[in-house]
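pipeline stage [seq->struct] | target=Ricin B lectin domain-containing protein | organism=Cucurbita argyrosperma subsp. sororia | residues=288
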Amino acid sequence: MDKMTQVLFCIALAFSLATHTAIAAASGYGSFGSRTHLVGRDGLCLNTLSFFGYYTPTDLSLCEQWKSSQLWSILEDGTMRISNRFCLVPKSQSTEVVGANVVAMDCSKEIRHDMKWTKNKDGTIHHDESGLVLTAKPGRTVTVEVNENLPSQSWEATETFYPMVANIKWLDNLCLKSIEGENSYVTLNECSRDDKNQRWALYGDGTIRQNEYRHLCLTSSERNYGAMVVVSRCADKPQQRWGLAEDNTINHPNTNLVMDVRREVPLLPPMIVVDKHDGAASQRWTIY
């Protein structure tokens, strides 16, 4: 593997975007080896609360490399397992499962028809039976919900627990730069790794955060063509979830909106917006 390929592979692991590492349905345990962590909202890991009752609740907690309650596998039958015999399922088996708690069940004692999951390229983990997605917010138990493209619905199968910190480069050696403060705009400036306002933390939940102030997220003011991109306080909303596509565009997952640059007034700083994906060079970015 050459150096550039290694860099791109690390980005794919760290950045919960359109190129998510899929949980493959391979023989035995999945493509990532015997077990892996599932990193979700705010860089926290999917965790079982106790080890183990018949139905053990799940939540998010600080990631720990060898913590057995955070080590997940997926088998070729589509089940997601912890300690091999405990399967992830919605606790409710009714037809109305929206908002149902997700638990680890002893599937060596009971086989249910709703035990299968699919890891999608956009980072969601889809419950096959209900069509809902795995959703987790800090301080709450994990549930299945309708997919709203929220950061709390994005997951990364990885052993990299710390967000990648990088510059985001546009054309002409210009990099994305934040202006200090909440609800401030972003612009472009000559790239420099020493400029703290050009350094961004790329989280597994799809958020792009000021590295210096990680409670501030890159945000589109709306999910509409031409909406400005600003830095605002991180919240669980789709305007703060981003994806890096294979054509180097940065998008809102499951939309046709990508990050773009407008230079309408020559003497003023360029505006960063979201706009319709059209393949223009102004819509391509490099993470380094």
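stage status: PASS
auto-comment: The helical segments are 3-14. Confidence is low (pLDDT under 50) at residues 1-33.
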